[in-house]
Amino acid sequence: MQRIVDFVLELDKLKAVTRKNRPLGLARYENSAEHSWQIALLAMSLQPYADPGIDIERVVGMLLVHDIGEIDTGDTNVYVEDGQAERQAAERAAAVRIFALLPPAQAETMLALWQEFDAAATPEARFAHAADRAMPVLLNLANDGQSWRENGIAHARVLRRVGPPIRAGCPALWYYLEARLEEARLRGWFGADADA
Amino acid sequence: MQRIVDFVLELDKLKAVTRKNRPLGLARYENSAEHSWQIALLAMSLQPYADPGIDIERVVGMLLVHDIGEIDTGDTNVYVEDGQAERQAAERAAAVRIFALLPPAQAETMLALWQEFDAAATPEARFAHAADRAMPVLLNLANDGQSWRENGIAHARVLRRVGPPIRAGCPALWYYLEARLEEARLRGWFGADADA
Q: What is the reported pTM?
């Protein structure tokens, strides 16, 4: 029991890892713990858009654990493209460390979920990635492009970075977002980064 | 798709509903969204202590949705005992309102999870309640009794309010906590509320 307690208290640190979006109506930045909760519910809500064979419970499990490595590394914005391999290696090492706090059976189960998400090779992992990538877009669309404006992110860059994983995991969600993103572009909610 | 988006953006408001515990090492109070995430992972970690027939995925689903009614009502501390029936009715009305944002199939599934937790009659719901009640105790035990001290909560009151639901849902967790609570009492981490 003590190992479970040590693990769940270690999880508390994810409440201090901040992301680039601000919750609607709040001045502070969102943290990775509440983000993980929200995308688990997004995935549950999107179930009718999942292929019939998809195990939505495994999707939810993946989304609940997928950011745990950030306890050691911090969040990295999806638009930061340098040093990606190093960050991924650091997050993998962190996941191994943190799940090893648990008794072996639970450590193995949760690390397997984390690794399945990380590899993005199964239909469940791809569906999970679609929910994870879509959520900040949905928040920005509801918040006048807040994190795109603050970070000078161009429309073309959003399409390039989040389009393929969302389309691969949940095509209907991408068709919806693509149209909303075009409306946002016409409203001037994006930056004009040279890299776009 | 728009109804799913409306629902998930409504969920954003739970990030603004604060509880009485402070995350370890942070000055701010915890919110109900990140709390829901943490107890879902606590329940997954406690699976070996669940009766063999328990569907842990349903437990996780219940924990992810159980606080959604607080979007309209705010969090109520477990030690506030007045007006409980009115608050429960208000939370039920809120849950009905919020899940109705979803298309009917998902609304029905999620409201059923919420109601199952609320009724606390199935083994899954009792296991979920044990995780929900245990988490603030675990945070207080790791934080010098922070919310007990700040709110003058007595040891006897903690035992009376959280003991029965935790023991009913996950006896091994309660045996662990009972011993830790006694150590905390000897350290003087509780208040002396007359009502205890």
A: 0.95
From the CA of A31, how many Å to the nearest CA of chain B?
A: 8
Cβ proximity of A134 and A164 under 8 Å: no
**Nearest Cα to A23, choosing from B11, B26, B184?**
B11
A-contacting residues of B 28-87, CB under 8 Å?
A: 30-31, 33-34, 36-38, 40-42, 44-49, 57, 60-61, 64-65
What digits encode the pLDDT tens for the residues A177-193? 999 999 999 999 998 76
The beta-carbon neighbor of B9 closest among A11, A24, A31 is: A24
- The span from the CA of B143 to the CA of A39, in Å, is 29
Ramachandran region of residue A115, left (φ > 0), alpha (ψ -120 to 50) or beta?
A: alpha
In angstroms, the CA B105 to CA A35 distance is: 24
Q: What is the ipTM of this complex?
A: 0.94
Instruction: Please tell me the distance from the alpha carbon of residue A142 to that of residue A181, in angstroms, as a whole number.
Output: 11
How many angstroms separate the Cα of B94 from the Cα of each of A126, B74, B91, B102?
33, 11, 5, 14
